[in-house]
């Protein structure tokens, strides 16, 4: 029998899959992909890993004693039950809570990447379901660039004007003289984009963009081979950016005509650069003290920036920190002073090096989309405030100029995310998850979030269902064929919600009378009709399914900032002034000390927890926490634990050798990791990527505290926001100390399911 390879896609790109004689999945890269993602290697090992959730499972004391707050979450065995029992219990609790407290008491924000596929997107399915039964408390923005999502509308009118229309790497190669890359140009992030890409070209382009690069980062790994590395002290880019701006101003290298015609508020910022309000001129000498880049280098770079077409790029990681608005706004200030915003290959970039789609040249096309319906509940949280929400019902918080109140959450419903991977201060998150009466989680694997639930419903993976898939700026739409039968008793999120909707009298509202295949046809054909209205043609559904993928048609749309540049009066930005707001009266009017009305250097206020600066960045070997049990992720571990990279001087000072198990710790918690030594990390900095499955154990060194045996850095990060403006995730940085581990090594228990009773 010949193998039948079928097309599918994932957040790490399109690929092909088949099953072997034992029924195990085998994968191969997409034939047209010049640089398949290394993450593809995680698929085979994860698909049937022992940590797959096999049957509905219920936490023992929730089943025995009924719903209620419980500090036992994450510590207790589960009882496997049949689907009807589990669905009846979940439906009854949803009904009780909405009846007693209103739908606001249900948190359905459920942040997370889940899987590729336009229909079986777990978070969208959950939102659609909850909307059909009266709504839910939602979350806004994302962990990736949530700070920018709030800031950018104030400065340039919309998020998409910067992120949605980034120049392609080809345009950069053809037009740009110099990329000034704050945060470097990490290639490790460029195989991933939500929905995936078919042809990976970004990593090669970022590794060698064909133009001069000045790369500013504490991490040498994020610098292109041909780039010049400015080894900056972490969290101080704003000081350097302001000093570059000061040099442009002092040496009259700024474009006054551009600033007058296209911007507002430059005079306020210029006064700040000169030191009018605070007596501190933001000179290169001032900055050098903070960012530890020599003043002469800053001056020289400013002159080079003014000498040609310059792209100022700020990675998303820089805004995932305290005062994360500032490096973004200061980057826009620099690009505005150079007068190149809206010119091909010039101006401001945000996210080159952060995700594959930035710099991709695929068409900007609306993709088939499942409607989530309307949520009648008005309550929401900025996404990274999940622990505050659960711990502080009734408390007020600031967000983007509003004073809002946290509702009282009684039931948490999560599908397609792993907050015990993505959130900060996981010990605090455990306390927060002890508060609600019920926590329901749909998961493919026994992640830490599943282990902290009361009811775990086993979900299929993309390989076990049919879907349509493409990422933003992808070149193809993939017909995602089913490869494997559903694992054990797992079900699609859609069929789980259909069964719940049925129990709650909302079946038709949820399904509109369609099965999963019917939805695929419906979404595709509605999309095809809307393309036809634009004069674009794609084949009918049956043909698309047979072909396995179709090329997406080109659409000609001029980027908004190009139109703005051509005529700011007829194509103004959606800001109050219609111009780029280098000073925002709106933001200023909010009166937030942690986000004033113009870009500024603000002294860090988050408490320091140790002498070393921890960078908790995106992992090179998996997508967030997904695929942690797969081959690429497992091979990178040191003695089974996540690798932490230290400078040899910091290691020597602590008696740490290559490959040793070390303990990272601060006031919030501790984790174990395996030491890797590298002089491509700035002294004083340690790097522990996110995504090792959280493995909490009692810390023998501190009573009542938790040590993660596996190396999840979010036991060390602070659960504090970037600012009151955005309340964004600031988890990229923390302060820690590191020591050699002594005493018995705790076993890693994330790679087997939790205790399961009957
Ligand atoms: P994932 O590991 O992708 O992480 O956080 P996110 O929660 O998105 O989690 C997705 C989960 O969905 C996985 O557990 C997977 O098994 C599950 N899943 C996949 N497919 C399905 C499905 O079909 N159905 C169901 N029900 N479940 C499914 C990512 C977040 O982490 C992000 S985006 C960023 S940028 C943040 N970055 C940082 C950082 O820089 N530093 C720190 N310290 N922390 C961060 N956290 C953030």
From TrEMBL:
It comes from the Bacteria. Residues 8-46 form the Molybdopterin oxidoreductase N-terminal domain. Its cofactor is Mo-bis(molybdopterin guanine dinucleotide). Keywords: Metal-binding, Molybdenum, Oxidoreductase, Periplasm. Residues 612-730 form the Molybdopterin dinucleotide-binding domain. CDD domains: MopB_CT_DMSOR-BSOR-TMAOR. PROSITE patterns: MOLYBDOPTERIN_PROK_2, MOLYBDOPTERIN_PROK_3. This is Molybdopterin guanine dinucleotide-containing S/N-oxide reductase. The lineage of its organism: Bacteria, Bacillati, Actinomycetota, Actinomycetes, Pseudonocardiales.
């Amino acid at each position: 029998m010949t193998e039948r390879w079928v097309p599918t896609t994932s957040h790490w790109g399109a690929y092909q899959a088949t099953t072997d004689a034992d029924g195990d999945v085998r994968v191969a890269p997409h034939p047209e992909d010049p640089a398949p993602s290394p993450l593809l290697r995680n698929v085979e090992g994860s698909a049937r890993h022992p940590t797959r959730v096999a049957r509905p499972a219920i936490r023992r004391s929730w089943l025995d004693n009924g719903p209620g707050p419980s500090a036992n979450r994450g510590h207790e065995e589960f009882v496997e039950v049949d689907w009807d029992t589990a669905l009846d219990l979940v439906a009854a609790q949803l009904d009780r809570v909405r009846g007693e407290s209103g739908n606001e008491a249900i948190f359905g924000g459920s942040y997370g990447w889940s899987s590729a596929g336009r229909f079986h997107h777990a978070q969208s399915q959950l939102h659609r379901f909850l909307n059909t039964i009266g709504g839910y408390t939602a979350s806004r923005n994302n962990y990736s660039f949530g700070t920018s999502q709030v800031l950018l509308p104030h400065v340039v009118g919309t998020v998409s004007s910067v992120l949605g229309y980034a120049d392609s790497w080809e345009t950069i190669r053809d037009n740009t003289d110099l990329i000034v890359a704050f945060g470097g140009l990490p290639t490790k992030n460029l195989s991933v984009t939500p929905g995936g890409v078919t042809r990976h070209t970004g990593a090669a382009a970022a590794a060698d963009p064909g133009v001069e690069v000045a790369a500013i980062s504490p991490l040498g790994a994020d610098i292109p081979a041909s780039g010049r590395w400015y080894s900056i002290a972490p969290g101080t880019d704003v000081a350097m950016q302001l000093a570059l701006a000061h040099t442009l101003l002092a040496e009259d290298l700024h474009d006054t005509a551009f600033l007058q015609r296209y911007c507002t508020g430059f005079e306020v910022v210029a006064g700040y650069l000169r030191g009018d309000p605070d007596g501190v001129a933001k000179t290169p000498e001032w900055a050098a003290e903070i960012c530890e880049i020599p003043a002469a280098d800053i001056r020289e770079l400013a002159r080079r920036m003014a000498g040609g077409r310059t792209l100022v790029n700020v990675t998303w990681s820089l805004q995932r920190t305290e005062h994360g608005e500032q490096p973004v706004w200061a980057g826009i200030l620099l690009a505005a002073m150079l007068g190149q915003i809206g010119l091909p290959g010039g101006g401001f970039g945000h996210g080159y090096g952060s995700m594959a789609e930035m710099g991709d040249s695929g068409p900007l096309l609306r993709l088939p989309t499942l409607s989530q319906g309307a949520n009648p509940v008005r309550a929401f949280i900025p996404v990274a405030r999940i622990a505050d929400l659960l711990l502080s019902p009734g408390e007020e918080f600031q967000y983007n100029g509003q004073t809002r109140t946290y509702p009282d959450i009684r039931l948490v419903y999560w599908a397609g995310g792993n907050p015990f991977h993505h959130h900060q201060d996981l010990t605090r998150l455990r306390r927060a998850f002890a508060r609600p009466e019920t926590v329901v989680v749909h998961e493919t694997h026994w992640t830490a979030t599943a282990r902290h639930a009361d009811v775990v419903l086993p979900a299929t993976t993309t390989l076990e269902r049919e879907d349509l898939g493409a990422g933003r700026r992808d070149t193809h739409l993939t017909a995602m064929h089913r490869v494997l039968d559903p694992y054990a008793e797992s079900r699609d999120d859609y069929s789980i919600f259909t069964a719940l909707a049925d129990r709650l009298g909302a079946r038709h509202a949820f399904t509109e009378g369609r099965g999963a295949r019917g939805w695929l046809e419906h979404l595709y054909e509605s999309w095809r009709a809307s393309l036809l209205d634009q004069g674009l043609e794609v084949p009918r559904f049956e043909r698309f399914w047979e072909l396995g993928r179709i090329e997406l048609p080109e659409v000609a749309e001029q980027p908004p900032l190009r139109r703005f540049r051509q005529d700011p009066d007829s194509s103004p930005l959606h800001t109050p002034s219609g111009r780029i707001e280098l000073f925002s009266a709106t933001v200023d009017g909010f009166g937030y000390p942690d986000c004033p009305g113009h870009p500024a250097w603000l002294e860090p206020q988050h408490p320091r927890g140790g002498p070393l600066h921890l960078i908790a960045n995106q992992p090179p070997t998996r997508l967030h926490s997904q695929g942690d049990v797969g081959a690429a992720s497992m091979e990178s571990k040191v003695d089974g634990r996540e690798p932490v990279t230290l400078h040899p001087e910091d290691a020597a000072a602590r008696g740490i050798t290559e490959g040793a198990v070390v303990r990272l710790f601060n006031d919030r918690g501790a984790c174990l990791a395996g030491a890797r030594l590298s002089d491509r990390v700035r002294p004083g900095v340690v790097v522990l990527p996110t995504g090792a499955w959280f493995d909490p154990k009692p810390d023998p060194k501190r009573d009542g505290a938790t040590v993660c045996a596996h190396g999840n850095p979010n036991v060390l990060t602070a659960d504090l926001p970037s600012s009151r403006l955005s309340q964004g995730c600031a988890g990229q940085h923390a302060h820690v100390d590191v020591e050699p581990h002594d005493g018995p090594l705790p076993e890693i228990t994330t790679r087997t399911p939790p205790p399961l009773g009957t």
